[in-house]
Amino acid sequence: MNSQPTVEPVSFSQQFGTSWNAFWFLPADGRPLAVIRILTAVLGLVLWSSYAADLQRWFGPDGVVSPEVMATWRRAYGVSLFDAATTAASLWAVYGLGFAAFASLLVGLGTPIAAPLAAVLWVSILHRGPMLIGPADDVLAILLWCLVIGRSGDHLSLDARLRRARGTTPPGPSVRNRLALSLLGVHASGITIAAVLAQLKGDIWWDGTAAWWLLSGREHTPASLMAAMAASDYLTNLLTHAITLFEIAFAAGVWVAGLRGSLVALGIVAWPLIGWLSGDLAWGCGMATLGLAWAPETVCRWSGSAGGKSLVAGPG
Amino acid sequence: MKQKPHRETIGLLAVCQRSPSWKPSYSHPEVVVSAQSAGKSDPKSPQAGLPSETVRGFVSLFLALYLLGCALTVAGNSGSGASLLVSTVKSRLFSPWMVPLWLDLGFDYRLTYGQLDDADHVIVVEPWDATAEAQAIRFPAAGSSGIAANRWRTLAGWLEPEIVPEEVAGLLPTAMAESLFDQLGSEDLRVRCLRFAMPERSTFDAAAEPALEQATVARVRRVAGSVQLLPVEEQRDVAPVVSPASDQGGTP
Fold first, then answer.
1. Which segments of B74-211 are extended strands (E)?
2. Which positions 81-140 of B are in contact with A (Cβ < 8 Å)?
3. Minimal Cα–Cα distance from A308 to chain B, Å?
4. Tell me: the pLDDT tens digits for B128-154?
5. CB B110, CB A202: distance < 8 Å
6. Closest-CA residue to A281 (of A103, A58, A47)
7. Chain segment A156-188, per-residue pLDDT in tens
8. What chain A residue is nearest to B174 in terms of C-alpha separation?
9. Residue A278 CB neighbours (<10 A)
C-alpha cells in the first residue's frame, strides 16, 4: 500500500482562494497594530489640537463655518455629532470628549471603546468643517477605522497591564488584527497609486520642476533649499523624479515580499520628507504609519517581540 | 483519507469558501499535498486559526464590496471628472454609507501643479475705510506656522476665484465679515484673499520676503441688521484716455 501522499495540480481559483485566505484571515499578532495605534493616536492628538485655538471662531454660534456655509460644502449623507453642539459650552464638551478618546487610544485604555469613539468624533469634525481639511485628515480617518476593526489594545497598552494584573492569559494572534493590517496595507498602496496618477497628469511632474513649485508660493519656505534648486536644474529634477519614483516603487513594490521591508523602511524617511516638501508634514507621517502595516515583522522587532515573525507574514 | 479535488469556482465567495486548505508559504506553488489538507482538526495546521468558511465567506463578500467601493470612489473623485456610469453606481450604492464614514475619497493628492491655487493663501479683513494697517486682521496671523495655520490657509484657498464655484463665491467672505463686525467695530468691511507669489526659479531672490498678491476682494456691510455683499470693481490698468479733439490740436 502506497503511503505517499498524492499530489494534485492546483487550479487558479484554488491558488487565489488560498492566497486570499492567507492575506485576509491568517491570525496576526497584535503588536504591530499596537505600534500603529500609538502612532495614529499621536497624529490624531496633533491634528485634533489644531482645532483648539479657533474652535469657537470656526464652529461656535457666531463662527465662520455657519450652518449655511457648512450645508453648502457638506456632501450628501454627511453627518456630524458637532451639529448638535449649538452652544459654546456644548461645543467644548464634544471637543473635549474627542481629546479624551485620542488620549485613551494613545495609552491603550478602554481601546475597544476609545478607537470607535475617536473615529466617529474625527469624521464628525471633518464633516463639520469640510473646507478646513487637508490630506492628513483623510489618512487619519482611514487609520482610525482600521484600528476599530483590529484588536490594537492587546499589547503596549494599559489594557494589557490591567489584564496582566488580573492574571488573565495574554491574547494570542487574531484574525481581526490580520484584517486591520491588510486593510491598512491595501490603503497605503491604493492611496499612493491615486496620488501618483494625479501627479502625473501635471506637466511639471514630467519636466522635473515640480519640486520647485512645491516650495514656491509658500509663506514659510526653506530659503537655502530653494536657493540650491534655483542654482541647479539637476537638483530640482532629481528631487522631482525621486518623489515620483519612490511613490511608484512603494505602491507596487510592497506587494513583492523581497522588496517590502526595504520600501517600508525607506517610506519611514521618505513619506515625512515628501510631506514636509509639500507643506503637509502630518500627511507624510500618516502615510509612513499606513505603510508600517506592510512590514509587521519589522514593527514587532521594534516593539520588543521576538516571536511574531511566523504570525505576522504581512499582507500579501 | 484522500480529499476529492475541488471543483472550479468562479465567484469570489465560492472561491474563498471552497479554498481547500491553508498552504504554507514553503510549499511548492504548483501543487498541494492532499494529505495535509485534511488536517483541519490538527491544531498544528495553520488552518486551525482561520475562521469558519461561513464567516470567511461573509467577510470576503463585504471586503469585495468595500474594495469595489474604494475603486469607484477613487475613479469618481479624480478631479478629472467621472463617467455617468461610475458616478451613478457610486452615488447610489456606495456614497450613502461611505460618505458618513469619510471614506468616499479620491486620494488625488497631486501635491502641486504649479498653479495659482497651489500657493498659500491668507484672508485679511479690515474696515472698508481703514487707513492704517493696524486695523486689519489676518488669518492666519503673519508668521504663524503649524497645522492650525494650514487650516486657515486651506479655508482662504476657497476664496480663490479660480477654484471656488461662482454660486458660492460670496458665502465665505460674508461669513468671515459677519463674525468680525463686532471685533473690528465697523459695519462695513473689506475681505481680501491674498496669495503668495510663486516666483520662477530664474527670478528667485533668497533674501527677499515672500510677496503677497491680491486674489480677490469683497465688501460686506451690515445695514439695519441685514448683511449685504457688494461687488467691488477691481482697478485695472488702462490706457490713458486721449481725446480725439486734443489729437487734432483742438480744445478737449
1. 121-127, 137-139, 188-196
2. 91, 95-97, 99-114, 118-120, 122
3. 15
4. 887 766 688 999 998 888 999 999 999
5. yes
6. A47
7. 999 999 999 998 888 889 999 999 999 999 999
8. A64
9. 23
B69: phi then psi, degrees, rounded to nearest 5: -60, -45
Q: Which of A21, A127, A132 sits opposite B50 (nearest CB)?
A: A21
Across chain B, mean pLDDT equals: 77
Q: Quick check: B74 and A6 CB within 8 A? A: no
Q: What is the pLDDT of residue B246?
A: 46
Which residue of B79, B97, B176 is in closest CB contact with A64?
B176
B204: cell is 528667485
Rounded Cα–Cα distance for residues B37 and A62 (Å): 67
A181 min Cα distance to partner chain B (Å): 13
Pull the grid cell for residue A119: 473615529
What residues of A are in contact with residue B32 (Cβ under 8 Å)? Answer: 7-8, 10, 14, 18
Question: How would DSSP label each residue in A71-129?
Answer: HHHSPTT---GGGG--SHHHHHHHHHHHHHHHHHHHHTSSHHHHHHHHHHHHHHHHHH-
Q: Is residue A204 a contact partner of residue A239, using CB atoms and an 8 Å limit?
A: no
Contact B35, B52 (CB under 8 A): no
* B208/A contact by beta carbon, under 8 A: no
State the sign of the Cα–Cα–Cα–Cα dihedral B83, B111, A258, A298: negative
d(CA A54, CA B157): 18
CA distances from B19 to B22, B34, B46 (A): 8, 13, 14
Q: How do residues B49-102 score in pLDDT, each as one tens digit?
A: 788 889 999 999 999 999 999 999 999 888 777 899 999 999 999 999 999 999
List the grid coordinates of B104. 468616499
Sequence length of chain A is 316
Q: Where are the domains of chain B?
A: 12-98, 116-200+207-230
Assigned C-alpha cell, B232? 467691488
Domain boundaries, chain A: 26-158+172-302
- Number of other CB atoms surrounding residue B211 within 10 Å: 12
Contact A25 B51 (CB under 8 A): yes
Q: Which of A296, A173, A149 is nearest to B50 (CA)?
A: A173
Which stretches of A206-271 are assigned E, i.e. beta strand?
Answer: none
Question: Which position has the grid cell 470576503?
Answer: B60
Residue numbers in A near B78 (CB within 8 A)? 194, 197-198
